[in-house]
Amino acid sequence: MRRALAQKRPYLVLSVVAALAYHYLQITELPEAFLWPIKGSACAFLAFYAWLRHGSSDARLLAGAMAVAAIADMAMEFDMAVGAGVFILFHILAIRLFTRHNRGAMAGRDNVVLLALLIVPPFAGYWLPDDQLWSWLAAAYGAFLGVMAASAWASDFPRLRVAAGAILFVISDLLIFARLGPLEGSLIPEYLVWPTYYLGQFLIAIGVVTTLRKRDPELRVVPGSRETMH
């Protein structure tokens, strides 16, 4: 079994390598046609990681969400509106995953954070862009983004990984909203959007998969068949 696990972990390493490669290569003169697959492969490898590390429907749902994110990452390179539309599907899949693992009633500070995660993204999406059309589009997208982050916070997955990852995702998109307005032409979004986004996705992936493996041991690979460990 250890050999089988060792064969699956490289997808996580390859994801990090792809993310770093895209981050540094995007400032070079490498043609965009070569950059797109490198960018998309970062989350694609996270999808493979989730698919192979656990055999549950939740892991499959996470893998599907990461595969959608990989497509969205590439789509963002040629049309931001199309990319945002694909990301909405990612958010829907992530919301479904997180709400399956709701931690139950919350109180005090937890509810304040939950409310902030729901409200800030759509309001920031509306107020940050200078163009009125983008304001409404960003606000609509921000509503899905906010629900995704809030459902991660309300889930029983470890907050230092999964909820933190979702919040980093929010920060990344807020920087994109700001690039359409007050930070237009600034280097801050150029340097921070991708690192905060990818780190968020990375934390979500490892947080969910690690938790699922602890709660329900992964499928054991045996010659000619697969059997569950329960």
TrEMBL record:
Membrane topology: Multi-pass membrane protein
Subcellular location: Membrane
InterPro entries, alphabetized: TMEM86B-like
Coiled coil ranges: none
Keyword list, A-Z: Membrane, Transmembrane, Transmembrane helix
One Pfam entry name: YhhN
Residue intervals passing through the bilayer: 12-27, 33-52, 59-76, 82-99, 111-128, 134-153, 160-180, 192-212
Top-level taxon: Bacteria
Family the entry assigns: Belongs to the TMEM86 family.
Protein name: Lysoplasmalogenase family protein
The organism of origin for this protein: Aurantiacibacter gilvus
